[in-house]
Amino acid sequence: MEQVYELAGGVTVSRMQPTIGASISGIDIAGGVSAEQVESLKQALYAHGVVVLRGQDAMSFDDHLGFAAIFGDPISEGHVPDRPQITPVTGKVGSKEGTACYWHSDGVYKPEPEFASILRAVDPCTFGGDTSWSSGVAAYANLPDEVKRQLRDMRFNSSLTARMPKDYNHFGDGDNWNKLHEKYPPVTQPAVSAHPVTGALALYVNQSWSIDIVGMDEGESAAMVAMLTAEIKRPEYQCRWQWQKGDVAIWDNRLVQHYGVPDHTTGRYLERITVANGPVLSIADWEASGAKVKVVA
After folding, report:
1. Residue 294 located in a structural domain
2. Running DSSP on this structure, what letter comes out for residue 2?
3. Rounded (5°) CA angle 30-34-36
4. Which residue in 72, 86, 168, 285 is deepest, having the highest Cβ count within 10 Å?
5. Does residue 91 lie within any of the structural domains?
6. Residue whose C-alpha is closest to residue 294's, from 228, 202, 209
7. pLDDT averaged over the chain?
8. For the chain, what is the domain count?
9. Is residue 297 part of a domain?
C-alpha cells in the first residue's frame, strides 16, 4: 500500500490513514480544473471516501459552485440570500450548536440523499473544531458474516421531523422548515449502501438519522442500531482534519460518515455545498444492475 502516489493531471494523493482519507495537491480550484484532474479527483474520492485540498484561499462562491457541479447537481435549499446552494457551517465557543457532533451522513432523510458534500473553510476555528470521518466500507467489511447476512436486505426508517426541531437554525426559520417537512416525508434507506460507481459496500446506518429498523420490534431494533452505530466509532476506521483557512474537503456520503468535534476555542464559519446524484443503492439494487460487487482497496 503506497502512502503517496501520483494520478493523471499532476495530482498527488497522500493517504491520511490506511482505511480512509487523503490529501490532494496539484490542483488550483480557482484557476480551473482540467478534465484529467476531474477524473483523478473522482478516483481518489471513491478510493478513500474523503479528500482534502489545502491552499484554496482564492476560491469564490462561483468557483465553489462550479467545482461542486463536477460531482453532481448542486442542491438549493439554503437560506443565504442569492446563494441558496450554500449551507453555512458555524460554531461558537462552548456550544455544540451547529457542530453536527453525532456520526452521520448528509441528507439521509431524503429519497435521494446528498451524494457528495464540498465544505470550504472561510474562517475556521483557530484551535479545535476539527472534523472526523469514518469509513463505512471498513466498518461493514469487519462485521461478522452472520451480521452481514442480516444486513443484506435490511432497511431503516429516517425522518427530518423526528430528528430536527423546528427552531434549529440550520434551516433558517420555521417557514423554511415547514417547506422541507412537506417536501421530505419519512423514508426508508438500506442499512448497507452499494456504491453506484465502484460497488463498494458501506455501512449506512448512522447515529443521527437512523430511527429504527423496518420490521423489527422496538427492543430488537434499538439493539441493532446501537451495535451498528458503535461500529462506525472505531478509531481504526477514522481520520481527523485540523482546518486551515482555504481548505476544501470533499466526501462521499455513500462511503463515509462524519462528526464535527465540538471543542471550539474560537468561532468558525465554513460554507458547504452538497450535490445529488440519484438514490442510495442497496445490495439488491446493485446486483439487479448486472454488476458484481467489489470493494475499493
Report:
1. no
2. -
3. 140
4. 86
5. yes
6. 202
7. 92
8. 1
9. no
